[in-house]
Structure formats: C-alpha cells, structure tokens
Amino acid sequence: MENIVWLGPTAWALLYCSDYYLTIACAHLYARQDKIKFEGSYELNPMFEAEIDALRRISPRFIAMLIVSTAALFVVGVITVPQTRSVYLFMLGALLMIQLTVHVRHLRNWLLFHHALRPGGMTGHLEYRRDVIFRASAFEILEFGVLYAFIYAFTPAGPFVLGGAFACGVLAISHYRLARARREARAR
Length: 188
Description:
By secondary structure, the chain is mainly α. The protein has helices at about 1-30, 50-55, 60-80, 85-115, 130-155, 160-185, and strands spanning about 35-40, 125-130.
C-alpha cells in the first residue's frame, strides 16, 4: 500500500512541474513570434502571471505550492481508510486530470508558436482580447469536463474520473468569471 500512496503525489508533482515548465517554454516561444498576440499576460492563472511574464525558471511561489499540494495529497492518501478511499481518488483525479487537460493546451500552443516562428509557417496576425481568451479557455476546459463526466457515467471509472470532471467544471467557471469581469471592466 505504501507504493500506491506515493504514486499519486509523485504523479501530481511531475505533472505540476511539467505544467510550469511547459508554460515557461511556451511563453518563451510566444514572446519570440509575432503572429499570435494576447492582451495582457500569456499566463491565465493570476497567481503566476508575474513569474511567467518574467520567464522565471525558479519561482519561490511555485515551489511553495508544489510542496504544500504534494504534501497535502500524500497526507490525504495516508489517512484515508478503505471506506473513504473514494475521497482520495476524487481528489487525485481532480488534480491529475485537470493537469492532463492543461497539458493538451500547452502542447497545442507549443506547436502553434513553433509554426509561427517558421518562415511561411503562418501568415497574418491574430490578436485576442483578454475576455475572449478566458471565454475560450472556459469553453475548452468545460468540453473536457463533459467528456470526463460521460466517461464516469458510462464506465466503471469511479471517483477518479468524477474528480476530473469536477475540477474542469470549477476551472471553467473560474475562467468564465474572469472573462466577465474583464469585459465589464472594459465597458466602464
């Protein structure tokens, strides 16, 4: 059972680190190209905007969040008993599946920015307002949430996948609210 308790936090820590460093890599590519531009920061998480904008490879805030979240996941894994194991699996699914969802976006951005840097790889110029970026993000994350909800409903996937659907729903609502706030601020 000890190996299983370490498996979730280890997977989380690896995905969380990969998320941060893929964000840095994509932000670096984004800054070098001129075909696709976003209003405001490249980073969508307000907590990490300054770190990503500065392309900080080492972020004390990121390291603190990594340690706290990994430790919390480990503690929950250790203290859950078989009767409440579904709570741990729900939490683990929420964390891992939202990370996997975000990784899809990173890989797409990496591909797009790479093509934007190649001569003839892209023509034209796109500029996205901040509220449009958040609305598109909310919609995309919600699509994954619906996919995970269907997998949960029609397979024996259990609380892990339900956690992923829940986390996607929460993030989609958060990005929708950020989009609405940004749009309302512009209207003033």
